[in-house]
Amino acid sequence: MAKIAMLGSGFIGRFYADSLQGYRSRDKIVSIYSRRTESAQRFAEDYKVAHHTTNMEEAIANPDVDIVCIALPNNLHEAAVMLCCLHRKAVMTTKPLGRNAEEAKRMLQAVEQAGIFNGYLEDLVYTPKFIKALESVKEGALGRILWAKSRETHPGPHSDWFWDIEQAGGGCILDLGCHCVEITRSYIGKDIKPVEVMCWADTQVKPIDAEDHAIGLVKYENGAIGQFEVSWTFRGGLDLRDEVMGSEGTIWINSFLRTGFDMFTSGKGANYVAEKAESNTGWLFPVGDELNELGYNHMFMDMFNAMEAGEDPKETFYDGYVVNCILDAAYRSAKSKLWEPVQLDIWRGKTGVTKDSHLTEYDADHYLVKEEVTHYGAKKVILKNKKTGKIVERVME
Ligand SMILES: NC(=O)c1ccc[n+]([C@@H]2O[C@H](COP(=O)([O-])OP(=O)(O)OC[C@H]3O[C@@H](n4cnc5c(N)ncnc54)[C@H](O)[C@@H]3O)[C@@H](O)[C@H]2O)c1
């Protein structure tokens, strides 16, 4: 059983608490920190938490606490992590790890120096669909991964601080791109180095200093390409989709707006439908078990199993740091309009990986371009002569 201090009683703090305590789990929140007494008190009542406080250090230092869960605005992650290091408390932090790579690096180095357990709470690489998809990719069902795209778009976040570039550290690139980058990086291989980023970003709708819409490409050392599409201006709910293309196969995942559950209602008795759903009448796309569909349950299971076994979880501060480095390059590219290198001072994956060959052997003299069975029953092969480079077609029957 893990005894948890929750820092933050807002949107994600409550999602986390529902996941941690909502399924007869043995893990228990024993202390809650929030900015205002009323919020801390309300959270303590709702989740039967023994101790509540408006003093962050008091929650962390509480002797009953084994692990601290940081669910605070982005600008407070670093201070909270440093207090966990000071009090030698295991720590898990919501995404993004830092507002930029510099902050993330300081946090990574601090937890490693303190020798404390550290987990990066990237829930979207723990969704049941993602776990199954990644298993298939790892078993080779898709062959060589060529392109992995992830899209997260919605009509914008739910609290003031997100919209303030100083507190949030960025706009939708940082807020949503962190999910997409870790998803696509996982499909391509977390040991494959991201090398450069090209990104378009703009503020198209909202009266803010940060970007509210962006599209980016992340090039990896093995020639694979990651793509993220993020927006705070999308209308129609929360659009969470991934596409993976490999030399032997394809995966399409729709995690939220199309989960196989469509409902029509005139609006009578209409209630909460799903996160960021914009409507509660007409045709709706509810999500059966949001906590599970969004990966929170599997994520905490991994965190606590790893902590108990004295191992690293699947996602650590190091992953959060790599994601921040990629997003920093995206911000630089959006300004320079050029491919920008990913500056990774700390890299623990493979180095010097070269692009895989794109040539498929057919026979001693030819490479295979394509096989095709036509509607008129012919089987054709299209080949390239290795010596002359000439493309030829053979009809087999
Ligand atoms: N899927 C996800 O993983 C996911 C989803 C939403 C948010 N988040 C992350 O969780 C963190 C918190 O986001 P949220 O949506 O819960 O925000 P929120 O505004 O709903 O809650 C923020 C909490 O922090 C507390 N707080 C303490 N000091 C504060 C201050 N100076 N200003 C504002 N709040 C302060 C508030 O009391 C509140 O309890 C962010 O880092 C965000 O990126 C992650």
TrEMBL record:
Pfam families: GFO_IDH_MocA, GFO_IDH_MocA_C3
Name of the protein this chain belongs to: Oxidoreductase
InterPro entries, per the entry: Gfo/Idh/MocA-like_OxRdtase_N (IPR000683), Gfo/Idh/MocA_oxidrdct_glycsds (IPR050463), GFO_IDH_MocA-like_dom (IPR055170), NAD(P)-bd_dom_sf (IPR036291)
Keyword Cytoplasm assigned: no
Signal sequence region: none
Keywords on record: Oxidoreductase
Organism: Niastella yeongjuensis
GFO/IDH/MocA-like oxidoreductase domain boundaries: 131-251
Example of a GO MF term: oxidoreductase activity
UniProt cross-references to PANTHER family, sorted A to Z: BCDNA.GH03377
Residue intervals of the Gfo/Idh/MocA-like oxidoreductase N-terminal domain: 3-115
